[in-house]
Amino acid sequence: MELMNIARVRWACRRGMLELDVLFQPFVEAHYEALADADKQTFIRLLECEDPELFAWFMGHEQCPDPQLATMVVKVRGRAEP
């Protein structure tokens, strides 16, 4: 997926789990454009993961083994909390 193709990123944020949609879609709308290119690439890699993995990482049931992805999980989750 290309870094600057925001339409594709938005589409990839549409997941099979409502809990993930609630995290990803607002993050992309409010924060994706302001991310550094390296962070955009990491976010895209995160979107390529399977929903059960993502759910476990975002809900704190498991620790993401990839340090870059784990950092992005924290960023997305931190932006989603009031």
UniProtKB/TrEMBL annotation:
<comment type="similarity">
    <text>Belongs to the SdhE FAD assembly factor family.</text>
</comment>
<keyword id="KW-0143">Chaperone</keyword>
<dbReference type="InterPro" id="IPR050531">
    <property type="entry name" value="SdhE_FAD_assembly_factor"/>
</dbReference>
<dbReference type="InterPro" id="IPR036714">
    <property type="entry name" value="SDH_sf"/>
</dbReference>
<dbReference type="InterPro" id="IPR005631">
    <property type="entry name" value="SDH"/>
</dbReference>
<dbReference type="Pfam" id="PF03937">
    <property type="entry name" value="Sdh5"/>
</dbReference>
<keyword id="KW-0963">Cytoplasm</keyword>
<protein>
    <recommendedName>
        <fullName>FAD assembly factor SdhE</fullName>
    </recommendedName>
</protein>
